[in-house]
Design a protein that fits this description.
Number of helices: 6
CATH superfamily: Aminohydrolase, N-terminal nucleophile (Ntn) domain
Order of helices and strands: EEEEEEEEHHEEEEHHHHEE
Radius of gyration: 19 Å
CATH architecture: 4-Layer Sandwich
Number of strands: 14
Oligomer: single chain
Structural class: alpha+beta
Number of domains: 1
Helix content: 25-40%
CATH topology: Glutamine Phosphoribosylpyrophosphate, subunit 1, domain 1
Distance between the termini: 25 Å
Length: 276
């Protein structure tokens, strides 16, 4: 499991994740590794980022490896897919559609007709010519005969935040409850009373994001949400399904995609040149 968070304000969008990867063993226990990559820069010269949760691999390749292969296509570096290169008319929606196509292509190569679990993938950034970021989501689950259609999580004129996979700590912190409580309440009362209950619950929401929040504060908030979820997971009984280094990236109009916190399995001092 994991937690993946974005925070969107006027000046950009921040992405933050933990690094935990959980594998269920045959005996029913779990193995947790704390070095999974979950944030990706999808084009080195364009303000486009991605973030993932759920399944950690497609067939024999990790989501990180597939995402980097996708980046080669978008940058025109894959001689077998030169038509995938992004030009000065690209949109984030188009990028998301291409992501869905490639992921299903890789899954199809495994011979499977269904996804072995759920895979979530966020594509965030600026479309060509736009001065505000947008967020699109892909969900891969069930049959894999056709690519899923991207859904827009937030458009250019909206702001806010969202947490995925294990959002319960963030929801409890800023809403006063998590969605599991809301679902249980609505299932246990007469449907005619649902609007009143929903209104009562939403009256306890706090708003941590202001549209005019400086971008460094939005980045710090995204990091805080991941750190809070990591601590929450650690002190619950059972495996630490959220944990490891927190990775953070910021995407803005003029600075583009910038890493704020990132782990490497190698020393960058000993490996000069382009860091992939």
């Amino acid at each position: 499991m994991t937690v993946a968070v974005w925070v969107k304000v006027y000046d950009g969008i921040a992405l933050a994740t933990d690094s935990a990867g959980t594998i269920q063993l045959n005996n029913g226990s779990h193995q947790v590794y704390n070095n999974s990559d979950k944030i990706f820069h999808l084009h080195r010269n364009l303000p486009i980022g991605a973030m993932t949760w759920g399944l950690g691999q497609i067939g024999p390749a990790s989501i990180s490896t597939v995402s980097k292969s996708l980046r080669l296509r978008f940058m025109g570096r894959d001689p077998n897919h030169l038509d995938w290169e992004l030009d000065d008319t690209y949109t984030i929606e188009h990028v998301a559609t291409r992501v869905a196509e490639m992921f299903c292509e890789h899954q199809g190569q495994t011979g499977a007709t269904t996804w072995p679990g759920q895979l979530g993938y966020i594509i965030a950034g600026y479309s060509a010519g736009s001065d505000q970021p947008e967020v699109w989501k892909l969900e891969f689950q069930g049959a894999c005969t056709a690519p899923p259609t991207p859904t827009q999580e937030q458009s250019t004129n909206q702001h806010g935040y969202r947490a995925y996979a294990q959002p319960f700590a963030v929801e409890r912190l800023f809403q006063g409850y998590d969605q599991r409580l809301k679902s249980a309440l609505l299932q246990g009362i007469d449907p005619s009373n649902h609007p009143d209950v929903i209104s009562l619950l939403e009256g306890h929401h706090e708003a941590p994001v202001s549209v005019a929040m400086p971008f460094p504060d939005a980045i710090a908030l995204a990091k805080f949400m991941v750190e809070t979820t990591s601590g929450y997971s650690h002190f619950l009984l059972g495996p630490d399904t959220v944990g490891g280094p927190v990775e953070v990236a910021g995407i803005s109009l003029h600075e583009g995609f910038k890493w704020i916190a990132r782990k490497h399995y190698f020393s960058t001092d000993l490996n000069k040149g382009e860091i992939r």
